[in-house]
């Protein structure tokens, strides 16, 4: 029985391996020496990760403007890691990386939401294609930010068991990881689109004259040959994709007969609109097109008459 105790005693007294020494970074030379002495404790991949996180800490110091100038920045970095364990330095680096990326990601998301309201001029196919390209590029950038942030948070969770409670990171708040613009409410979309139409109408009146205008989509106000011509064009429009609207301006009726050139609203703006909403918006936009066309036509006719007579009359009828 005693012999058994004697045999077990050395095993019971066996000491656990000493933990790796903390980072010594009071000086640049001290940090280099600590790394040389402990180079064999970590793999090449682990040291590359360590160096990457030192760079993130350095970037964090620069972003937060804790110091300026290379030497001053390095001094702050060494102060942050001095006396820390290898895992703690990694965690500080990943925390700095998340702190840097999240505001950039949120700012880009705001830009994407703002760009949802951009609308090119009717019929501007090149402009619409460019806008779509910009939106697609921004959405890809947002995806990249989200992937980097998610990986950073995964690494923080991996390291957390090795960290003291004073260095453990709180769980990040839930984020909307959608890359497209946030869908706009139906009420706001109707209000903003209605405001856009009114602003374009005001600009047209300022540019071409604020003459009273009358719009007749059915041509019911036309008579005789004008009515027959209107009906003929409306039949053709069913196959050509044109819109035909009778417009009265300055005591004269004209027939607007042009291709439909509707604004290209983003999916975020259209997301919550009903089919009835979309039909009404389309009708309002087409009526505005006919009105602007008529005002331009009347302005041109007025300018030609003034050139022939040498007089100017800007009084509304």
Description of the structure:
The protein has 317 residues and is mainly alpha-helical. It has 2 domains: 21-167, no CATH class; 186-305, no CATH class. Helices cover 62% and strands 6% of the residues. It is built from 10 helices and 3 strands. Strands 1-2-3 form a 3-stranded antiparallel sheet, sandwiched between helices. Strand 2 (242-249) and strand 3 (252-259) form a beta hairpin. Helix 3 (44-63) crosses helix 4. The chain is elongated and about 105 Å long. Mean pLDDT is 85; it is low at 1-9 and 312-317.
Write a brief caption for the model.
Helices cover 62% and strands 6% of the residues.
How far apart are the first and last residues' alpha carbons, in Å?
123 Å
Helix content: 55-70%
Largest sheet properties: 3 strands, antiparallel
User: What is the string of helix and strand elements?
Assistant: HHHHHHHEHEEHH
Oligomeric status of the shown chains? single chain
Mean pLDDT: 85
Count of strand segments = 3
Q: Looking at the structure, what is the overall shape? A: elongated
């Amino acid at each position: 029985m005693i012999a058994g105790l004697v045999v077990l005693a050395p095993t019971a007294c066996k000491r656990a391996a000493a933990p790796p020494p903390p980072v010594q970074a009071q000086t640049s030379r001290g940090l280099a020496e600590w790394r040389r002495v402990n180079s064999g404790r970590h793999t090449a991949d682990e040291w590359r990760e360590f160096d990457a996180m030192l760079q993130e800490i350095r970037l964090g110091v620069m972003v937060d403007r804790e110091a300026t100038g290379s030497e001053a920045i390095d001094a702050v970095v060494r102060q942050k890691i001095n006396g820390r364990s290898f895992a703690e330095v990694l965690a500080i680096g990943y925390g700095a990386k998340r702190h840097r990326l999240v505001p950039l990601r949120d700012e880009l998301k705001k830009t994407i939401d703002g760009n949802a309201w951009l609308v090119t001029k009717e019929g501007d196919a090149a402009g619409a294609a460019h806008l779509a390209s910009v939106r697609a590029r921004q959405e890809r950038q947002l995806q990249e930010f989200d992937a980097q942030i998610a990986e950073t948070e995964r690494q923080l969770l991996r390291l957390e068991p090795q960290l003291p409670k004073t260095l453990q990171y709180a769980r990040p708040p839930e984020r909307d990881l959608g890359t497209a613009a946030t869908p706009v409410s139906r009420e706001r979309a109707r209000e903003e689109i209605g405001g856009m139409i009114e602003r374009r109408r005001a600009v047209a009146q300022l540019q071409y004259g604020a003459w009273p205008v009358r719009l007749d989509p059915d041509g019911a106000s036309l008579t005789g040959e004008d009515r027959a011509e209107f009906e003929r064009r409306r039949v053709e429009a069913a196959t050509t994709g044109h819109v035909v609207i009778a417009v009265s301006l300055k005591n004269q009726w004209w027939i607007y007969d042009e291709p439909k050139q509707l604004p290209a609203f983003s999916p975020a703006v259209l997301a919550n609109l009903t089919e009835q909403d979309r039909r009404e918006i389309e009708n309002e936009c087409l009526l505005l097109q006919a009105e602007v066309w008529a005002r331009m036509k009347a302005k041109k006719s007025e300018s030609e008459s003034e050139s022939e007579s040498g007089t100017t009359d800007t009084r509304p009828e």
